[in-house]
Amino acid sequence: MKIGSDYAQSIGVIGALKSFMLKPDHYEMMMRVRDFSRILTPLRDTVYSSILSEVLDIPDIERRLLMHYYDVFRKVLAAAPSTVKPTLEAIYERYELSCLKTMIRFLARKIDTATALRMIIPVGRYDVDTCKRILSVGNVPRIVDFIEDRGLREAILSYMKIFMETGSTIPLESAIDRYAMIKVWNSLKGLTGYDEEVSKHLIGIETDMMNIVAALRAKNMGMDPIDVKGLLIPVYYRVGESTLTKAIYARSLLEAIGYLAETPYRVILDLPKIKGEEDLFRIEVGLKRYLARESAMVFWGSWLHAGIIIGFLNLKFYEVCDLITIINGKAEGLDITNIREALIMLQAGVL
Hints:
The chain has 351 residues and is mostly helical. Helix content is 64%, strand content 0%.
């Protein structure tokens, strides 16, 4: 069977990698460790033991965890059918651009190059030397000098004025996200049948998430609705353009959330449970848990489709994010309840 042979290598790689993912006990043991120096002990029998075997500080731990994820991504990409590779390459470019967003934040905060380089995880086109050159310019506007892609450069320049006026990097970061997700969505045109259907479902949900978060963050910082609308990704999967428009023109953050709560994401955006600005992070975590559940569901039936690849990469990324959350939470002395509220995989019930 042609489809089966196309996915044989992917299924073997993903099946092996998925079998090494963490179990609930690993999360619980890490959260209950009292001595922070022993925070990594519960991981000694996991795939993370070799990369975290030394005594490391938190920036080093985060760096190694994310580098581990990028290594996994490249293994999955290498094993993927040729029809799926353009989509995976577009998704991988998002992580490259996440590195660019991090550098923009550090430049905006005037963090010195040496310190910034310790916290940045170089990936793809943004290798160590490129990151060093970008950070050495010392200010955000000059970052466009290092961007060859005309579309990306124009996306950043279109919101540079707002950054200069407000000092917030949120508009610049959202403009980069918009550029990246349009490329991911357009790459799906190369897929057909169930490959296309399941991939559009997972990417569509993530696009909805990003539009919701971008709209609410921009509303929270008081951006002009016209500027906010320009940040929306023109892929309206389950949240229509008219609903998002109502949200960005709403008189308050709570009113905007009310409009968005009329969508299939109402459980996450349930208005009576939202107190105000401080709950934006809780909304974002809730949306990620939703995507984690949808990603886990693609494994219930046949594995002979692109959704298995995208779903696994989502779950693996959220696992790494959760580890970073637990380690930082324990370092800051947060109690288990507060750490648990910020977790994605454990609280999504997909382990």
